[in-house]
Amino acid sequence: MDQNFDLQGYMTKGVERVVADAVKATVRNPKESAFMLRFAAASRAASKRRAAAEKNGEHVPPFLIASITSKCNLHCAGCYSRCNHATVDSEPVAQLTGEEWLRIFGKADEMGISFILLAGGEPMLRRDIIEAAGERRNILFPIFTNGTFIDEKYLALFDRCRNLIPIMSIEGNREITDARRGKGVYDRLIANMDAFQSRGLIFGASVTVTTENLKEVSSDSFIESLSGRGCRAVIFVEFVPVTEESRELAPGDAEREYLADEIARLRGQYPEMVFISFPSNVYDTTLAMYEIVKNGGLPVGINFDSKNRRPSNTYEDMFHAFILGMDSFAFGLIKAAQIIEDGRIEGFTEKKYESFNTELGQKIRKGEATLEELAAHAADLKAPKVPASGRQEYLEGVLNNIILS
Ligand code: SF4
Predict the structure, then answer these.
(1) Is any atom of ligand 1 closer than 6 Å to the C-beta of 87?
(2) Among 70, 74, 75, which is best to mutate for testing ligand 1, by the most ligand atoms less than 8 A from CB?
(3) Domains of the chain in sequence order
(4) Which of 233, 246, 315, 391 is the most exposed place for a label (fewest CB within 10 A)?
(5) Is 122 in the pocket of ligand 1 (CB under 6 A)?
(6) How many angstroms is it from 87 CA to the middle of ligand 1?
(7) Half-sphere exposure in the Cβ direction for 329 (13 Å, CA)
């Protein structure tokens, strides 16, 4: 492992690439584009402030997570936050006020923090804090929400404050989502997505994966329905069983493996979207971080949980599970950097897909090639060539070599 690897520099570069991609993605949307250009300048200035702090021995992360309320309007089946009493129905006590959060966001801005993830309970119950966040245009705020409080007033706020990005929880189709979250929630989420799309607002989805919805949430029809509505990121969170009866809903090793394979497939099939799942396998976290870095980083951060298993069921086990998840992603980021610096996998991929960059390849990618043109090209090729080997074993060997070095 490269002991001199500059993790802070790497994350900063990732943030800069997110912003650059967001600017590109919004060129046809003047409002979004104007915000992204301003945010790009602010984010570059923030990187400089973090770098200056680092030189003085002070480490400032580019991301923060803020849990802004313990209250929620829903009672989702198996909600571990309620079970742990982190989310309650009673009026919250000793919670920070909107002004206090505004001061924290201001301080974060001064220090050079560019992304703050807002979570709860249900964060949109705290309109005062969301409005305060909207005022801090130098910071991007992904909001993890159940989506039931998104109304015209919030839509107008999101339209005005493009730094607020909702990430809505959905469990699959109407039947599955409503069974866990409550009747009518699915229709509400779809209506929200359509409203976001019609206003050109960016959003993401968070999916709790169970043994029951695993196939549905990784299916093409589900992902296509999200992508077609303008969703740009899907975060898969493993279900955490909190009662004996819900234990069978928790994915086991076979389901995890299935999900990992499906995510690899979806990443190839939906390049405009980012897919994230629960970590502990360093091969998975390395490949996930590789895709994240190559696609410009993640504006929404990474959300994961720990779960009880039959042989490990104490608080200490859960503590270790969280540490394991964080370490696995940190390790994955370092290894992803090494894969890119090593260049063998990148070089192979570039060579394999070099025809994508020919004049015809570019036309096909832009959807400009006609069937007549393609028919003429196929006729010119005469007999098709035997496809070149994908050299999977060689590439897996390179990956082993980097991960185990
Ligand atoms: S919306 Fe989230 S916090 Fe609220 S009950 Fe459902 S899972 Fe729990």
Answers:
(1) yes
(2) 74
(3) 61-324 (3.20.20.70), 344-379+390-404 (no CATH)
(4) 315
(5) yes
(6) 8
(7) 17
Q: Which two tokens stand for residue 75?
A: 């009672």
Q: Which residue has the tokens 């919004």?
A: 26
The model's pTM is 0.65
- Looking only at the bridges linking them, the beta strands covering 164-169 and 203-209 are parallel
Beta strands in 37-81 (DSSP E): 63-67
Per residue of the chain (405 residues), give pLDDT as tens: 334 445 455 455 545 555 555 555 555 667 767 777 788 788 888 888 988 988 888 878 777 888 899 899 999 887 877 876 778 888 777 789 889 999 999 999 999 998 898 988 899 999 999 999 999 999 989 899 999 999 999 999 999 998 998 999 999 999 999 998 999 999 999 999 999 999 888 888 999 998 989 999 999 999 999 989 988 778 888 887 667 677 788 887 788 888 888 888 887 788 767 776 655 567 777 888 888 888 777 665 676 666 665 556 677 777 777 777 787 888 888 888 889 889 998 898 888 888 888 898 999 888 899 999 999 988 888 776 777 787 888 888 888 888 877
Determine the residue of 67, 68, 80, 81 to mutate for testing ligand 1's pocket, defined as the one with the most ligand atoms within 8 A of the Cβ atom: 81
Q: Whose CA is nearest to atom 2 of ligand 1?
A: 121
* Nearest atom in ligand 1 to 82's CA: 8
Please name the amino acid found at residue 321.
A
